[in-house]
Amino acid sequence: MPKTSSPRPTPTPRRKPLNERHIISFLFAICVLITLFLGTLFFAFKALDLPAISSVSQYHPLQATEILDRYGKVMERIYIENRTVLPLAKMPPLLPKAFVAAEDGRFYDHPGLDFWSVFRAFINNAREGRRSQGGSTITQQVARSLLLSPEKTYLRKFKEAILAWRIDSLLSKEEILYIYLNQIYLGGGAYGVEAAAQVYFSKHVQELTLGEMAILAGLPQAPSRYSPFEHLERAQQRQRYVLNRMAEDGYVSRDAARRAFVSAVELKEPESAALSNSGYFVQLVRKRAEQDLGVSLNYAGVRIFTTLDPAMQHVASSAVRQGVMASLVRSSGQSVTKNGHKEMPQGALVSLEACTGQVRALVGGLDFTASPFDRATQGRRSAGSVFKPLIYATALENGFGPQSMILDAPLSIRGHGGKMWQPQNFSGQFHGETTLSEALTHSLNVVAVRLLQKVGVDKVRALAKAAGISEPITADLSLALGATGVSLLEITGAYTPFVCGGQFTSPILITRIEDGAGRVLMKNRPESRRVLDAKVAAEMQRMLAAVISDGTGKRAGGLPGLCGGKTGTTDENRDAWFVGFSRKLITGVWLGYDQNRSLGREETGGRAAAPIWLDFMRQAQ
């Protein structure tokens, strides 16, 4: 057989080596692509218009102003945003851990973004067909709260992620937590953990139990849905979740978490000043603090320490209310009015700590919510006979004594326009020659006028000014009958020289004001000055004690130890006054109608006001 030859294989073409030109072209193309990519990113970032994050490192949010009583308990919070900023060092160590466990378990490990959480949230959202989970870290929540609008869009979410990464590069984890725990909204109008502790538990964060911390840490996800006030069962379910997470992350033991869950959590909404009867006091404190600071308390973020004693304030409010109702029943036979407080007489009470001037109780009316007009400080009513002690004290300073004799007899005085004026005693009777002490005891009007004639109106007005009575002060002989208008706070303060050896001390409501860091911005030292000789003050003390033991103020009798005071009743019984003192307290009471009409035929200072004074003083001392 002929031999056949096998076909010759086709040779594989040899790959030409890349020359230098090809390499350069390839590298150039890569550079172009990278440049285009970076340029695209740059313009994308510019298009996002991201806010600067420098403000985050200079965190100075709006804070609430707190008004505290004499014992340091918060009476009222004034705010645009109800927030009190606290450093982490002043928070219990488990509180930040509770929030980390609940909101961002990998907080200390990720760079501001937790990609696993984002992926998990994306899968869950895709499964449910809606955006139910956000996967936001604590740092993202800080970025959202401080730098972004609340709109829910993917663009905002992208911005939030970039800003969170930047914030994590700028701040430490502790700094981020500090901002978060003070900035986060936790429902009930509370921003930050301190305000939330006050709102839900009426306590400071340092006093929170583990169970209470878990309640708060469960709120950021949905403050309304998990509010313990509105949805207690949901709040407890969320609390259980937080405690379990804390146990899983090793912050607490399983046993501690279990005990915290089964322990009772006492919810306690804070009582407003209006409901706690201190509305008039708080209103006056707010006005004076804003004058001192020169800024609205809505923005001040300060702590105002006041002189108010809450127990005395409660007693004062109760005494005024009961006394006003008793006066209404006596004068009209009714305890109910058709138009509520509008047709009722009003009452006011001020009580000062003797010789310090600190206001321990202040009631400006029956109901602050119904009528915020403060009859203790804003109302200026005719003083009646409570002004007389200033006339008698002036006389004693100018050579008279308690046993000096003066004539109680009909008197005619030429008044303005030549019209004759004949002052009368309340009883309509005259007593002839009488001592100054007896005249004050029985509040003899004619003697007061004669005494004022002798010592001079100008000298009495000078003493009144020195003792805290503000202008205008009547400049004629009608001053003897208390024709000048005074506030209850002023006339009560004017009695301090009688108790304090002749020394006048101006009433104060605020002891100091501190900023959020505890720095003292203002310390209030009451104005103090000598206005009477100590001997004169002692003589006035004894004369005013006789008013209670033997005179018009008998209904104020019954207290042990030193007590004295003076009644006051104006024309047609339009105003009823009693200002009196013990060694500890100086207290003034006023009753009257806002419409300046008569309280009733028998409603004098001795009958209407003195019993209120006694009721208060018995319980307050």
Q: Can you walk through the features of this model?
A:
The protein is an alpha+beta fold and 621 residues long. The chain has two domains: 79-262, Penicillin binding protein transpeptidase fold, CATH 1.10.3810; 350-620, DD-peptidase/beta-lactamase superfamily (Beta-lactamase, 3-Layer(aba) Sandwich). The chain contains 22 helices and 20 strands. It has a five-stranded mixed sheet. The chain has a five-stranded antiparallel sheet with strand order 7-6-20-19-18. Strand 15 and strand 16 (520-523) form a beta hairpin. Helix 14 (310-332) packs antiparallel against helix 22 (605-620). The chain is elongated.
How does the SSE layout of this entry go?
Layout: H1 20-48, H2 54-57, E1 65-68, E2 74-78, E3 82-83, H3 94-103, H4 115-128, H5 138-147, H6 154-170, H7 173-183, E4 190-191, H8 193-201, H9 210-217, H10 232-248, H11 254-262, H12 279-293, H13 297-300, E5 303-306, H14 310-332, E6 346-353, E7 359-363, E8 381-382, H15 388-397, E9 405-408, E10 413-414, E11 420-421, E12 432-435, H16 436-441, H17 445-455, H18 457-466, E13 485-486, H19 488-493, H20 496-499, E14 503-505, E15 510-514, E16 520-523, E17 528-530, H21 534-550, E18 563-569, E19 575-582, E20 585-592, H22 605-620
Parallel strand pairs: 1-5, 3-4
Antiparallel strand pairs: 1-2, 5-15, 6-7, 6-20, 8-13, 9-12, 10-11, 14-17, 15-16, 18-19, 19-20
